[in-house]
């Protein structure tokens, strides 16, 4: 029998047992629901933010058309309604049925709001009031072409010259990057821990003794790592693709190309990150013989993953292009979280990506060698916890 | 093709200062049931684990069919480890199929073999259950099936009878006999010496990591002093004390058990007994394996 077939059999067992578990299905569905829920909330908040309900009463009722038009110029949608009684209008504002209630005469408009007036609506109202006063006074002064003057005034605007181009997609890119590193962090931690627990389970149940009477340690380790890695990749892809589809469909994201690219890079970096950590997780798992002892040996390594994540979160939001961020994004163990984050932000250059991949692959090779050695030496030693020094054979 | 013999050849192993095995040497021939007995810590498990390659020997060699055991022919061994172990959450059938495939069986044959052993060992109703949900006795049956499912050419079983109920002991015995009859060398360790005596073609007794006696039970008996049981109702106490080369082992229910030094003629004992009056019984005593074991281990 070829080693490839052995590795395949081990990997297939992992796939079969994990994919069938309820926790896999529940975990995937819950994560997708949380993500989709978050996106839908964002979409509805974004919609609410530039839409107001305004009640008009008395003379102000005549302002419905100009108010809607002016607000529209400012990118704000206004829904107007007539209110007979001013006290009724106030009550509706208090109850949240109206965002603003407008009363008073054309030149002395009063706006009642609950706590604060939307900035755009405020600007629209001011402009309207000023226009009303101007029109009234021009008419009073019997200026001949009042209408023409007003139209000219309305057309006038300043020209803006930008010296530095601000990426209009910056906010969306940041959102993509943050969601991506959260997913990466969760997946790396979850599947790394699963590798360790799988190793401990085989040791604790002693099944490893019959396995290793016919399978070499590296074949068992590689099969397990590959099998669980595929399970993780399937889950990551399901969540990523669904999330992306929902975000694009609801227009929370409009950057189709960039977001898809970010997801693809996210998948690549999931694989790199997983292989970086998996053998380390497996080797620390092989040091103990009982599930109860697993947590204590896993803590140092889960901390490393957590630090990479927390650093990623703060550096990407504040200074994605700083020297420190660039350097950290090149080197493991930070690269699997920082680099895909920077790629999603669109601030990673080609050579940075290439260098970080090379460094990470090198680290994977080194850690796999080291982890394989620890695993081989420790996996058949049952009983008390094996000391790392003994397992390394130094 | 050379005979399917499992040879343990001068195998030594130490754990730090503890010498676990010292020049352990014996062989298990094709079609033979070999019983491996010894006190706790004598080195039985260590020997078996070395044969399986899950433990490395410091020196010496284990051969099968004349060739050193390597990764490739190790697949042909069926192994029942002392510390039983299966995947607790895996179903019985899946587990056996998986183990058969890992030992090199193609998927179809693996399925057939697994179903076959499940039926043979009375596990049909349990084939879809997780192993952890089975009774201890049934878990033992699955463990035995796991050792046999890949049609091994050698069987190495570490205390296969421990914890079995009498029915399961019979099932296990029948399976081992059947395997041996099919030409498989079967090595197993046990503390149930009466069972070993009944079942085994040959027995090896280990003490402190060394094989101290090895052969058929009859051969082991020839090594020790001959014993006689004499029933002479009128014989006074101490009647045999002055006979040359004779020591009295026990007097019980009117029967005297005597031990004869090598070269002592039993007919002089009979003459002396007849001199005291009638002799109702006079026979050679064949010591049981348990007695032989006690002698060997305590000497
Ligand atoms: N992992 C180990 N570390 C240290 N000593 C061991 C280990 N395993 C076995 N031994 C020692 O080796 C000797 C032989 O043990 P073992 O082969 O298990 O005996 P048996 O199976 O005959 O009871 C014993 O003295 C035992 O204490
Ligand atoms: Mg033992």
From TrEMBL, chain A:
<feature type="transmembrane region" description="Helical">
    <location>
        <begin position="225"/>
        <end position="250"/>
    </location>
</feature>
<feature type="transmembrane region" description="Helical">
    <location>
        <begin position="262"/>
        <end position="285"/>
    </location>
</feature>
<keyword id="KW-1133">Transmembrane helix</keyword>
<protein>
    <submittedName>
        <fullName>ABC-2 type transport system permease protein</fullName>
    </submittedName>
</protein>
<keyword id="KW-0472">Membrane</keyword>
<dbReference type="Pfam" id="PF12698">
    <property type="entry name" value="ABC2_membrane_3"/>
</dbReference>
<feature type="transmembrane region" description="Helical">
    <location>
        <begin position="323"/>
        <end position="341"/>
    </location>
</feature>
<dbReference type="GO" id="GO:0140359">
    <property type="term" value="F:ABC-type transporter activity"/>
</dbReference>
<feature type="transmembrane region" description="Helical">
    <location>
        <begin position="23"/>
        <end position="41"/>
    </location>
</feature>
<dbReference type="InterPro" id="IPR013525">
    <property type="entry name" value="ABC2_TM"/>
</dbReference>
<feature type="transmembrane region" description="Helical">
    <location>
        <begin position="353"/>
        <end position="375"/>
    </location>
</feature>
<feature type="transmembrane region" description="Helical">
    <location>
        <begin position="174"/>
        <end position="194"/>
    </location>
</feature>
<keyword id="KW-0812">Transmembrane</keyword>
<feature type="domain" description="ABC-2 type transporter transmembrane">
    <location>
        <begin position="26"/>
        <end position="371"/>
    </location>
</feature>
<dbReference type="GO" id="GO:0016020">
    <property type="term" value="C:membrane"/>
</dbReference>
<feature type="transmembrane region" description="Helical">
    <location>
        <begin position="297"/>
        <end position="316"/>
    </location>
</feature>
Automatic annotation (TrEMBL), chain B:
<dbReference type="InterPro" id="IPR027417">
    <property type="entry name" value="P-loop_NTPase"/>
</dbReference>
<dbReference type="Pfam" id="PF00005">
    <property type="entry name" value="ABC_tran"/>
</dbReference>
<dbReference type="InterPro" id="IPR003439">
    <property type="entry name" value="ABC_transporter-like_ATP-bd"/>
</dbReference>
<dbReference type="InterPro" id="IPR017871">
    <property type="entry name" value="ABC_transporter-like_CS"/>
</dbReference>
<dbReference type="Pfam" id="PF13732">
    <property type="entry name" value="DrrA1-3_C"/>
</dbReference>
<dbReference type="GO" id="GO:0016887">
    <property type="term" value="F:ATP hydrolysis activity"/>
</dbReference>
<keyword id="KW-0547">Nucleotide-binding</keyword>
<protein>
    <submittedName>
        <fullName>ABC-2 type transport system ATP-binding protein</fullName>
    </submittedName>
</protein>
<keyword id="KW-0813">Transport</keyword>
<dbReference type="InterPro" id="IPR003593">
    <property type="entry name" value="AAA+_ATPase"/>
</dbReference>
<dbReference type="InterPro" id="IPR025302">
    <property type="entry name" value="DrrA1/2-like_C"/>
</dbReference>
<feature type="domain" description="ABC transporter">
    <location>
        <begin position="6"/>
        <end position="233"/>
    </location>
</feature>
<keyword id="KW-0067">ATP-binding</keyword>
<comment type="similarity">
    <text>Belongs to the ABC transporter superfamily.</text>
</comment>
<dbReference type="GO" id="GO:0005524">
    <property type="term" value="F:ATP binding"/>
</dbReference>
């Amino acid at each position: 029998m070829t080693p490839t077939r052995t590795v395949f059999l081990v990997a297939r067992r992992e796939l079969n047992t994990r994919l069938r578990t309820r926790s896999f299905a529940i975990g995937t569905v819950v994560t997708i629901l949380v993500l989709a829920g978050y996106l839908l909330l964002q979409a509805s908040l974004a919609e609410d933010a530039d839409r107001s309900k305004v009640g008009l009463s008395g003379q102000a009722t005549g302002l419905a058309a100009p108010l809607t038009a002016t607000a529209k110029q400012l990118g704000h949608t206004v829904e107007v309604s007539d209110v007979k009684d001013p006290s009724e209008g106030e009550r509706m504002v208090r109850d949240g049925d109206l965002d603003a209630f407008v009363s008073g005469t054309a030149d002395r408009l009063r706006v009642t709001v609950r706590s604060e007036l939307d900035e755009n609506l405020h600007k629209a109202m001011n402009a309207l009031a000023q226009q009303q006063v101007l029109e009234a006074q021009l008419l009073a002064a019997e200026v001949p072409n009042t209408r023409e003057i007003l139209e000219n005034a309305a057309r006038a605007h300043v020209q803006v010259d930008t010296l530095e181009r601000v990426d209009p997609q910056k906010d969306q890119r940041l959102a993509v990057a943050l969601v991506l590193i959260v997913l990466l962090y969760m997946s790396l931690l979850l599947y790394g821990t699963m590798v360790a627990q799988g190793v401990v389970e085989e040791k604790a149940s002693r099944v490893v003794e019959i396995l290793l009477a016919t399978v070499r340690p590296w074949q068992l380790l590689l099969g397990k790592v590959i099998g669980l890695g595929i399970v993780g990749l399937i889950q990551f892809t399901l969540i990523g693709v669904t999330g992306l589809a929902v975000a694009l469909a609801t227009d929370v994201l409009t950057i189709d190309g960039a977001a898809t690219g970010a997801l693809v890079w996210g998948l690549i970096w999931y694989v790199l990150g997983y292989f970086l950590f998996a053998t380390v997780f497996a080797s620390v798992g092989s040091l103990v013989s009982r599930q109860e002892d697993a947590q204590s040996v896993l803590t140092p390594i889960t901390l490393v993953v957590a630090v990479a994540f927390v650093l990623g979160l703060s550096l990407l939001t504040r200074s994605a292009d700083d020297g420190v961020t660039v350097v950290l994004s090149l080197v493991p163990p930070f690269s699997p979280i920082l680099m895909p984050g920077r790629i999603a932000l669109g601030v990673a250059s080609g050579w940075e990506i290439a260098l970080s991949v090379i460094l990470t692959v090198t680290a994977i090779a080194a850690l796999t060698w080291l982890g394989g050695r620890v695993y081989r030496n420790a996996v058949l030693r049952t009983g008390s916890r094996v000391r790392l020094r003994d397992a390394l054979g130094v | 093709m050379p005979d399917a013999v499992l040879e343990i050849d001068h195998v030594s192993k130490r754990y730090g200062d503890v010498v676990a095995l010292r020049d352990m040497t014996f062989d298990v021939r094709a079609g033979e049931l070999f019983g491996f007995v010894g006190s706790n810590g004598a080195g039985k498990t260590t020997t078996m684990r070395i044969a399986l390659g899950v433990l490395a020997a410091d020196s010496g060699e284990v051969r099968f069919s004349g060739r050193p055991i390597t990764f490739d022919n190790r697949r042909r061994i069926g192994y029942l480890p002392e510390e039983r172990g299966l995947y607790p959450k895996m179903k019985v059938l899946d587990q056996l199929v998986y183990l058969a495939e890992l030992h090199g069986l193609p998927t179809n044959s693996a399925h057939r073999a697994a179903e076959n052993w499940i039926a043979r060992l009375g596990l049909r109703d349990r084939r879809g259950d997780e192993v952890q949900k089975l009774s201890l006795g049934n878990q033992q049956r699955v463990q035995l099936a796991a050792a046999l499912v890949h049609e091994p050419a050698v069987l190495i079983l570490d205390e296969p009878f421990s914890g079995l109920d009498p029915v399961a002991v019979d099932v296990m015995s029948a399976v081992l006999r059947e395997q041996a009859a099919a030409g498989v060398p079967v090595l197993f360790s046990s503390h149930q010496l009466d069972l070993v005596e009944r079942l085994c073609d040959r027995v090896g007794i280990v003490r402190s990591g060394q094989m101290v006696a090895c052969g058929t039970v009859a051969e082991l008996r020839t090594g020790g002093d001959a014993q006689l049981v004499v029933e002479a109702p009128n014989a006074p106490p101490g009647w045999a004390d002055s006979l040359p080369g004779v020591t009295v082992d026990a007097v019980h229910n009117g029967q005297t058990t005597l031990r004869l030094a090598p070269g002592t003629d039993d007919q002089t004992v009979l003459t002396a007994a007849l001199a005291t009056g009638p002799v109702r019984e006079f026979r050679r005593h064949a010591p049981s394996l348990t007695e032989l074991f006690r002698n060997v281990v305590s000497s």
